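Sequence in, structure out. Go.
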Amino acid sequence: MSYSVQYDFTQVSRYFDSLGINAITELKDHIGNELVAVSMEAFENEADPETGKKWPVSNRADLQGGKTLSDTGKLKQSIAYDISGSDIKAGTPLVYGRIHMTGENIKAKKGYLKFKINGKFVQIKELKIPQRRFLGVPKDFINRIFGNPAIQNRFGAP
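Output:
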């Protein structure tokens, strides 16, 4: 993945020790799906998933209407999770995902940056992309996992 966030299991590691390997895998899948759901909510709310702070409105959304970071939907659709050992990561393989997560000034290496807005080509020497975090682990994440009745019925509570 080009950019990802990782969930740290330290808080529930003793609980995991009491589960069998199949249950651990199932629970990790649930956590991965929940990390992706958090990102989907960020796109829907146009807000940082950890702080709730609204994203700056993009020029495209301002000029054409629609939602910020949702023009083609490719970024949102690219969000997936990966499990490797005890790590669960949610992220995107798209390079521009990192740019939106961290914010960045993009300068033309030679000449101008050129792109199309409302059917007209625009040339600029520099473009500032503000930070718009769409990946994250909200403070209530443990409650989202273990407060879920289906998870409580399947695994109990830690």
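Check: The longest strand covers residues 87-92. The beta strands are 3-7, 80-84, 87-92, 104-107, 113-117, 120-124, 126-129.
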